[in-house]
Amino acid sequence: MSEGIELLLEGSVTTPRGFNAGAVHAGVRSDWDKLDVALLCSEALCAAAGVFTSNRLQAAPVVVTRQHLSSGQTTAVVVSAGCANAATGQQGHENAIRMAQLAAARLGLDPHDVVVASTGVIGTQLPMERIAGGIEKITLSPDGGLDFARAIMTTDTKAKHIAACCANWSIGGAVKGVGMIHPNMATMLCFLTTDAAAAQPFLAAALKEAVDVTFNMIDIDSDTSTNDMAVILANGAAGGPAIDVAHPEAPLFVAALTAVCTHLAKAMVDDAEGGTKVIEARVEGAASPSDARAAARGIVSSLGVKTAVYGHDPNWGRILAAVGNSGALFAMERTALYLGSPDGKELCLFREGAPLACDPAQAKACFTPHEVRFRVELGVGASAATAWGSDLTEDYVRLNSLYTT
User: What is the torsional sign of CA 59, 64, 68, 70?
Assistant: First the structure.
């Protein structure tokens, strides 16, 4: 953690000054009783940026939000949970636009200054009458950030939110997603707010930089959703000149944003559908940053690794196989593999092309903590990356085989 950054575990998107939020139960899905329509609004027009799913099947709200953020500014976010509004044709597109119009009318804004997001089942139309009624009933307040975080959940079991305070400004965030998670952006939705003044080009670059090393480095089930987006709003309520690449606080802003995104990304993995473990894979000595990221993601997305972690099976050959299959430059005679042990030390299992003698019980013990850590040294460069993933369990299969029934 960089000096000067204080993380607030109970913080949210309304921790930064000038943001209000709220949510209601509108009955988007008739088979659950939960908050499912939410609003987030700034008291002033914000510089804004977003990154989005790389899935070629893009949900209507993603298409509309891309268009609305093309101006580099926005004021509000409207979200519905329970229906993804993906693969819904022209009617779905019109419904996404209608959500923006309803929120804008409620808040006294231009519809183009509203970000639209939805999450849930693909291929069903939004119940627009319920959503319209819900938007009208929402009460906005500076204390509404936690309700906002709860309302964007689908199969999540806990709300995921955080804030970071730095100097005289702060950054808040909320995220949802515990299945269909293999972000490559830039079903996860992430909303970030800050009361710092920020130049839009810098804000967009900072968001991409933070997403690349956090949300783009996690895996639950290797599915990239149709609805993934991460959006940041900066309203400048803290005052002062706008932070840009030359501003002395630019590195601090990027570090704080990355800290918020890291916490939220790991919270998603920790709440993975059916998951019991968090897997952390650290790859060092890679030939390039892209190789390091590919190798680390290859480990946490490997079904063989995931199932071995779930079964506490120290079948470490699967880890090396995943690295070799990742496309990263790989020289076995230079590679070393380490397991993180429960006492905080490391156990080396492979070095210079050959396995090392090891007590099987000692290796198995490395798989018992809630967070299972692997470190791979490739020895072919100076680049490094860390990825996080979940194990794969019977509960994941059960939950996803019954999702719509």
Answer: positive
Within 10 Å of residue 125's Cβ, how many Cβ atoms? Answer: 12
Q: Across the beta sheet with 371-377, what order do the strands follow?
A: 218-219, 383-390, 278-286, 371-377, 336-340, 346-351, 354-355
Smallest CA-to-CA distance from 281 within 267, 295, 263 is with 295
CA distances from 180 to 58, 120, 155, 219, 227 (A): 14, 11, 11, 9, 10
Of 296, 294, 221, 231, which Cα lies nearest the Cα of 257?
231
Contact 274, 231 (CB under 8 A): no
Determine whether 187 is an active site residue: yes
The model scores a pTM over 0.85: yes
- The angle at the Cα of 175, spanning 26 to 390, to the nearest 5 degrees, equals 120
pLDDT digits (tens, 9 = 90+) for 266-276: 999 999 888 89
Alpha helix (H) residue ranges in 190-288: 200-213, 250-270
Residue type at 77 in one-letter notation: V
Q: What is the pLDDT of residues 185-215, one digit of tens each?
A: 446 899 999 999 999 999 999 999 999 999 9
**Which residue out of 65, 187, 258, 335 is catalytically annotated?**
187
Quickly count: other Cβ atoms within 10 Å of residue 124's Cβ.
Answer: 17
